[in-house]
Amino acid sequence: MSIGNVPAAPTPVLAGAVLSKEPLWLRRFLELMLCAFLAYVFTDGTLIAVNSGVSDMTSLVLDSGEGDASRQIFYIGIAILLLLIAARHGLSNVVSPVPASVFIVVFWCFCSVSWAIIPDISLRRVILATIIIFATITIVSALGPLRVTQLLYRILAFFVVANMLSVVLLPGYAIHSERELDTALVGAWHGLMPHKNIASAVTALSAIVFGYHAFLARSWKSAVLLVLSVIFLLGTRGKTSLGIVVPCLFAGIMYNHAFRTERQKFLMFASIFLFVAGLAVFAMVFTPLLAQIFDDPASFTGRVAIWDIVLRYVEEYPMTGAGFGSFWLIGQDSPILRIGGDMPWLFGIAHSHNGYLEMLVTTGVPGLVLTIIMFVIVPFYSFVMADPYWRKINGLYFGIWLFAVVYNLLETHIMNRDRQVWVIMLIAIQVAFLHRKREAGTGPRIVLDN
Questions:
Q1: Is residue 275 part of a domain?
Q2: How confident is the model at residue 209 (pLDDT cuts 50, 70, 90)?
Q3: Can you give the residue ranges of the O-antigen ligase-related domain (predicted)?
Q4: Which of 48, 53, 65, 159 is the one with CA 20 to 30 A from 196?
């Protein structure tokens, strides 16, 4: 994947508004840093996936919550390097790339530490989450959306090919074996990733990137990579990713098409409004059926039971929650031991399987409201108000962002430290933030080609 008409030497400064002539070695260093960062995130902190199962699921919830020291050192090291690079242009460049909306959510999460069940665990987790946010946003602003898109394409291409080769050449390594404690995992592909859920999420994002480029540029390379992505995604059996990847890819393509004229732009977002309204009408008409589904704890592969436990706690502490990162995996004080005592299988759950409910149960109603406003409504507004000048690249990231928004209805990735979909969602949000308007010196028109 290449982006035409991009000058070789100048790159955007951290604020992303004007051009600066960074030394070539520094640009290459930032590119290497981004590749290492994403590779580490995609493999969940390791390139060696050990799938021996967990003999005692209760050990997960009784864990002290100390965290992974090597992971913390890796991300702190990247953050320090980026801080030093940003400071070269003045201290204001340390914070200028970060949208104010992100600051607000992070501030509330830090506030929640004061009432967290285990404050020191909560503080460590919110600091790590903040470091991930800072590192992702800063490096996107430093390299610019053009170069980041190129590198993201190449990294995803590497993992798709490597994952497929690992399944063919090393099936005992790349496929969940019968030793798994969770029998539902047996036979599912995970490739280089340690778990099929991670593999399915990353591969779905790959399908969006390759599918978008194949459609836009008529690229045979992207078409081949798209086919490989679809095959591997089917092998992972990731139902959530499989269910939403096609609509999100289609939405990205429609975004690019709609921004050709104001009339088409209006029709697209009017269609989105009508679709959401239609869902609301559907929910009202079929309320009895939906109630029956959600009354069954086994619905959505057991997620309803998890959500019920979470909502029980929210009823007790609606405005504060348990404190950021202070509900699951915090040891003997975990609320799950008290509320979910009649369902021991819940002791092995690490999150709410819903990013929005996770923010509700850990940061209260204010945290949930801020999360929806800052990571759903504000980015949507940014995409809507973006200058048509950027429609080609914005269409790609609109599809990625939409995937992340919907994905978090069944998985917990928003504000969840270095979860894969969350990091890519941050990249998409930052691209939308940088492209809300076109200013002099922001660079040439974006053209995706072969």
A1: no
A2: very high
A3: 223-371
A4: 65
